[in-house]
Amino acid sequence: MELVFIYLDIPFWRAEVGRIALFMGDVNFRDLRVTREEFLKIKENGSLNGKFSIPFHQLPCLIVNGESIAQTAGIARFCGKLSNLYPTNDDKSAGLVDQFIDFATDITVLISQSSKFSDIEKKRLSRVELYKNELSRKFSMLEKCIKKDNTWLVSSNITIADIAIWRLMGWLSSGELDGVPNDILSNYPKIRDICINVDNHTKIKAWVKKTYPNEYNRGNFIK
Ligand SMILES: N[C@@H](CCC(=O)N[C@@H](CS)C(=O)NCC(=O)O)C(=O)O
After folding, report:
1. Cβ(3) to ligand 1 under 6 A?
2. Which domains does the chain have, with CATH numbers?
3. Ligand 1 centre from 60 Cα, in Å?
């Protein structure tokens, strides 16, 4: 099977969950990273250089034997199935994995709403407000979903859900999102422990070494 994974050259969770799954499963794929200029053109005309169709003018997009598949969660499941990081014979576990991926989407949508302000102070204030209210509420709910002493979010093995939450929370705890404090995980020890477990996974370390810029701020997972 010929796979081309298209996204920007940044380790955002939407792409990382699929890219890392393929890497962890030793599935061969082309890791195609577009420039900002190419991304703007994709948004405008739904195509990467006339070669790959991008159905909803959004990234990530996965090209499977020449056919385009869009939408983060669907792509994540597709990659997870190929790499044994998504339950294929256990519908309940699959549903649980899905709920965490969709949770990551919900949080991302909330953040992007606050990113719309062009005025920097307005943007910061809206994030402060968002963090104090909706985000904290949501993270408390997520914390409650995690069973005590669980190494992974679902079942006894790492799944695409863990990868998604690790990168989502890494982004949010990096301190680089103005208005969101970098110590957020200190309030959610079970989420933090999942993130630490992912961060320490041998294959994750290998991927980080291979693709992340030196000293990249992966988030604040300190206990
Ligand atoms: N529903 C899509 C949303 C993807 C999305 O918003 N991607 C961003 C980049 S992280 C994008 O392409 N934005 C451009 C746009 O929405 O026009 C998904 O789940 O993949």
Report:
1. no
2. 3-82 (3.40.30.10), 91-211 (1.20.1050.10)
3. 7
